[in-house]
Structures are given as C-alpha cells and as structure tokens.
# Entry
Amino acid sequence: MSLPHRTSVIFDLDGTLVDSEPNYYRAGRQLLARYGVTDFGWEDHTRFIGIGTRETLAALRERYGITAPLDELLAGKNRLYLELAAASTEVFPEMRKFVERLHAEGAPMVVASGSSRAAIEAVLACTGLDTLITEVVSAEEVPYGKPAPDVFLEAARRIGAAPADCVVLEDAPAGAAAAHAAGMRCVAVPYVRGTQDDPAFATAGLLFPGGQDEFTAQAAYDWLCRRPAPSTPSAPF
# Structure
C-alpha cells in the first residue's frame, strides 16, 4: 500500500511528536514562582494541554491575579522553556518512525502548534526533526489558537493543500476539535490518561485510546492508505 498522492499530514508538536509537557510544566512552575504562585501542580498543568501558550498564560494571569503584562509572562516562559528543551527533549519513537516513513514517500508535512515559533524551531532542531519537517506554523501567527481551526487552516495554506486532503495528528481534545472545525481528518493519540472519552476525540477518524503506548507508525500508515483523501471539499471523510 502507498499513500494517496494528495495526502498532507499536519502534526501537533507538544505531546504528539515530542514529550515536551514535563518541560512546559517545569517552565510554568518556575515562572509562576517568580510572581509568588507556589501551588501550581501537574494536574493544574494538564488542564491546559493542547491550549496555546499565550491563552494559557492569560488564564493563569487572571486566576492568580498577576499584574505583570501578558507579553512579559510569555517572554519569561519561553526563555525558561527553551533552556529546558535544549537540554533534553524526547521524540516518541513510533512518531519518529512515522515521520521518517512519510518523509521517504515525499508526503507534505507541517508542524502546527500552540507554542511560540522559537520554541517549535528549537525543539525540531535539537531532536533532528527539522531535517524531516521544514514547515512550521505557530498559533502566534494566527488570530486564534486551538480549539479554533486557524493554525491548521494556515498550515494547509502554506503547503498548498486543501483542508479535506489533510490529516492532523493530535494528542489533546482542543486539537481534535480544531481539526474537526478545519474540515480535516484526525488521528488522535491522547496524552493525558482518562481523556480518551472526551467528546472531541469522537470526531477523530482514528483513535489510539492508550495514547503513545498504543500508537504505532504502521497502524497509522495503514489507516492513511485505507482512507483515500477526498478530491473535493464536499466529499465525505
């Protein structure tokens, strides 16, 4: 089997391609501690997985009554995260295999993430994924982050693909909702245990309920081959 020639693949980054959430959590804790917030825990962090960094910090700023400007918080978290990411970022092994196979077949690929462009590029560079995926879109570059479809629609525009011909890989309900709103098929690989039953994941064409422990490059590839990309936006998914 081989991929339908029109198929383009859009990857979320954090929690989908790479296990960057521990670094984001540590960066968030360090940042909040500077403003007197010391009780931010992992469970608090998981509520924002899949949400853009700016939107996350805006919510935390309001929750904790932080008076510092949002741009100051954003710059501070990005600096902290980049230091941690450069030191250690793990690519999920089966995701790397999947990217390598798509690259070998010449399938158009793009990373579309809620992280800053600097963070996306740093992670791709330190993991070597930048040699396989060269196009990236940050939620900073569109009006609204996930669950709005903007970042995925911009990703499709940049690679010249129709939304109906795109497949999104996502780990978070907000990302799956964004893919559905964009009119794109979705392969869902939940990062947070217990979220597999979230209604947003019901819109995914392929769901790996066990997350990365269950995901395999071969299973995802076989599904793409069995599901030819529609030739017109009005065709059924």
